[in-house]
Amino acid sequence: MPMESYPFEQPRPSDLVRDDLPDAPKAGTTWAESSKEEKKAVLLEGLKEVVDPELMVNVVDLGLVYDLDIDDDLNVTIDMTLTSAACPLTDQIEWEAQAVLGQLARSVTINWIWMPPWNLDMITEDGREQLRAIGFMI
Asked: What's the pTM value of the predicted model, to 2 decimals?
């Protein structure tokens, strides 16, 4: 469908797909030798592949990831919440996070955190844009 015939000024959901990948460690640096901050940035970018199945926005942009840590042995610990403590899809989100990050880490552990409770203010601007594109008024 040509852009001029699209009836809205808002971006289409397909326009919000990111085609860029996180920066690789500096040339000559292995993943194990990368700084903790470089690893954390790559891991958070990787978590953007994990999409909340109900809202169809990634868990990072929804503000569900409270903290992420990686130790010297490449064990990752994520402090994360869900939009609801009664979410029936917890196992799916956990499995997807482990599948994505398991390629870069020795182990991935998710600590489910309920305090502070998640709220709409935690959604990033990118997350808000994605929600607006699929019809949410946020």
From this structure: 0.75
